Amino acid sequence: MLLSLDWLKDFVNIPKKITPAELGLRLTMHTVEIDDVINQADKFKDVVVGKILELNKHPNADKLQLVKVDVGKAKLDVVCGATNIKVGDFVPVALVGAVLPNGLAIKAAEIRGVESKGMLCAEDELGLGDDHSGIMILNKDKLGRKLADHLKMDDIVYEVDNKSITNRPDLWGHLGLAREISAFLGESFKEYKSVKDFKIDGVEEKINIKIEDKKACPRYTAIALDNIEIKESPDWLKARLTAVGLRPINNIVDITNYVMLDIGQPMHAFDADIVKEIVVRRAKSGETMETLDGDVRELDKDMLLIADKNKPIAIAGVMGGANSEIKSTTKTIIFEAANFEPTQIRKTSQKLGLRTESSMRFEKSLDSELCPLAIARAVALVKESCPQTRVISKLYDEKGVNTKESSITLDLDWLYSRIGEKIEEKKVINILESLGFVVEKTENNFNVVVPSWRATKDISIPEDLVEEIVRIYGYNNLNLIMPKVAMVAPEINKERQLERRIKNILSTGAGLPETYSYSFVGAKQLAKLNIKTDNHIKLANPIVSQHTLLRQSLIPNLLDQIKVNQAKYDEFGLFEIGSVYTDKPGEINKDDKEKDKLPQQNKSLGIIMANPGRDEAFARVKGVVEYLLNLLDLEFSFAPAESYPGWAESRTAAKIKIADKEIGLVALADKKISSAIGIKKEVAVVEIDFSGLFDLVSAEKVKKYKGMSKYPPMIRDLAFVVNEKVLYNDIRESIVKASGLIKGVELFDVYQGKELGQGKKNIAFRIIYQDEKKTLTAEEVEDEQKKIIKFLENKFKAQVRNF
Question: Secondary structure of 149-178 in the HEC alphabet?
Fold first, then answer.
């Protein structure tokens, strides 16, 4: 939002000793953030008033003229293509070196063989309008005078950060910000007075108005004026609108815009010859309306409209309709100033993709008392522009909801304890009263009555009053005292520590990039992966149509990442740690245990590898799992997966087990399914329950140092021929349990060949024997070997390979 310093001075006296820059700093320190302080005259630097002395044809161009122009200190030759100028006209001349508001830098240039030393300017080139049909013609003035001085456009403009006033509907106009300035400067404040009724000039006309939805429209005021002349606004009004970034249109439209920027209340003007009746109602299904910007808008039943007997004429609080706009022939108008429910306006604006100066204000919860004040200001301004104007109706004013006066009890001792020091009681009262509060003193308390413009959604509790007092008093005026705080080490988040540890292992040691994906998936996406969507949680308000469900696995989105990146690399992998969601009840809201049962949310670790070779992809991803779990000091094993996701290949899927607990799955993606979604490589994936993994890591006992044994180990190799369906892990666990002297078992070879026979495989183990109390003899080890062989022969029908 832009603020005019000249405009602010209508309401508050600003001492000359306070510079514009200092005022901007004080506004930032006390009320709102000021992003920039702009000197309006800077836009027209090196643009001066000139007088045309001669006009001659260009010798080398039929559509160009040679203009000799007097700019006071010099007479310049300028090449110009405009046809609306004549000798004696006063025009704006951009001198060499000027930079126009549209960014055009003026240089001496040769145009078709003739040198041009400057430029005559059109309105649009100066940022003063859209007209580019010809050069802007000025009133007579001193030659060489700065254009900013000629146009009286030497205002200072403040750029306000809108985010800093989103909770302050009273600050969306010059009136509200001037009140703030008067409070922190201690200067008097001039306030407008509202009018309950108006003197009717001539025959009274009745405005037919019907409010069908009084909840969405708590207040509606209107008045009719006759004998209107549609013309340009006075120069002062146009200058102010231009200073704050609005283009003047005509006196009536300009007045509605001026009032909005003046007191913060949006207004609208209807052509009364077209609009015979006003109905505030909801839109009908399928209804459309052309708005003032020329677009035809599709409306729905949740939108609030201003309509006549047959059709909509405005979208309430957002934009007027083209069918009732003010035209050059308009003689009678109806001014409207209404108050609308803020959520209603916000939703309508979002649905239509149409955010206007009006909607921005309404969605902040405006004070309904601004409505009659806006009407009074508009009528006064119209009579100033068109003295012959007549008021031909009473002020229509309907309140749908009665607002109650709000008051807050403020305990002074409590106030001082919150601030940290005492502020003079008289000073506290002055601050509150300067902001519009009414203060009634009782014993050691104040009863503070909140003004209507602060009672909407701003001031409601004593803490709000503390903020008002301190910010006007000045935070920099408070004594700086360091609080006494006990230094306590922050609680260690072990889950986050594990997450960071895993990320470091996978990104550095395993060389995998980390990826982040949305927590959403789509029904079509899952259907292609043979994943059922019945038990997925549906989003009530999805961001996009393809993301309608909460994910239950990281794999679908990781597969999409492979599809996007596969063309760039022969082989690569990714990992992600993220939340997954199930429809099972999870945490329960403490405030409403019965009603608000949240879905269960767990963390998951996903790893994916893409490789041209099927076996390579699976081996690589399995190796990453082994690398990770070994570094986490966890004993793990792989076992056949009895069940697996629809996208997995059944022959190459294994569950990951830690301490007899299934913690995850490693699997090869089915080639047909991955091809169907556009993946051209072999893909292997891992998904591990991160929450379960954390529990297992947390349960691990702290490892203590153990010295090396004094007695040497003895190593023996054993090779067995078994049925190919017998699992390596089952044999390994059996060997480990077979003898208390076994300290380690390592698989070092698996072989299948014709000499072994159909359905057979050879598995070779290296077994480490060691006794902590003595040195083992060869005979003792051989005895243990025989026990193991006999045990495996009985359990797995294993045959010691001696061929």
Answer: HHCCCCCEEEEECHHHHCCCHHHCCHHHHH
What confidence score (pLDDT) does residue 740 get?
A: 86
pLDDT on residue 588: 46
Strand 277-282 vs strand 208-211: parallel, antiparallel, or unpaired?
Answer: parallel
Using CA atoms, how far apart are residues 292 and 289, in angstroms rounded to an integer?
A: 10
- Distance separating alpha carbons of residues 389 and 381, to the nearest angstrom: 11
**Extended beta strands in 40-111, E state:** 47-58, 61-70, 75-80, 90-94, 109-111
Q: Rounded to whole angstroms, how far apart are CA atoms 205 and 126?
A: 44
Question: Do residues 173 and 32 make contact, with C-beta atoms less than 8 angstroms apart?
Answer: no
What would the 3-class secondary structure string for 642-653 be?
CCCCCCEEEEEE
Look at strands 636-640 and 208-211 and give their pairing: unpaired
Spatial contact of 196 and 41, defined as CB atoms under 8 Å apart: no
Alpha-carbon span 40 to 21, nearest angstrom: 14
Domains and CATH numbers, the chain: 9-33+161-185 (no CATH), 42-150 (2.40.50.140), 208-399 (3.50.40.10), 407-477 (3.30.56.10), 494-699 (3.30.930.10), 714-800 (3.30.70.380)
Residues in the chain: 803
- The sign of the CA dihedral 413, 418, 424, 430 is negative
Q: Taking the mean position of all CA atoms in its chain, how far away is CA 31?
A: 23
- Which residues make beta-bridge pairs with 109? 116
Say if strands 742-751 and 319-320 run parallel, antiparallel, or are unpaired: unpaired
Residue whose structure tokens are 């803490």: 463
Could you tell me the two tokens for 707?
């010295």
Q: What is the DSSP letter of 113?
A: T
Copy the structure tokens of residue 276: 């015979």
Neighbouring C-beta atoms of residue 599, cutoff 10 Å = 13
CA dihedral 530, 531, 534, 536 (to 10 degrees): -160
Contact (Cβ atoms closer than 8 angstroms) between residue 462 and residue 408: yes
Of the candidates 360, 418, 458, 443, the one whose C-alpha atom is nearest the C-alpha of residue 31 is 458
Q: Which two tokens mark 117?
A: 């030393």
Q: How far is CA 241 from CA 39, 91, 103, 191, 245, in A?
A: 15, 22, 21, 21, 6
Sign of dihedral through CA atoms 127, 133, 134, 136?
negative
Number of helices (H), then strands (E), belonging to the chain: the values are 20, 37
Q: How far apart are the first and last CA of the chain?
A: 91
d(CA 736, CA 747): 12
**Residues in the chain with pLDDT < 50?**
588-589, 595
722-739 pLDDT tens trace: 888 887 778 888 888 888
CB 49 within 8 A of CB 138: yes
Q: What is the pLDDT of residue 709?
A: 84
User: Which two structure tokens, joined as six digits, stand for 724?
Assistant: 């190919």
Alpha carbon separation from 459 to 58, 160, 173, 410, 448 (Å, rounded): 69, 22, 19, 13, 11
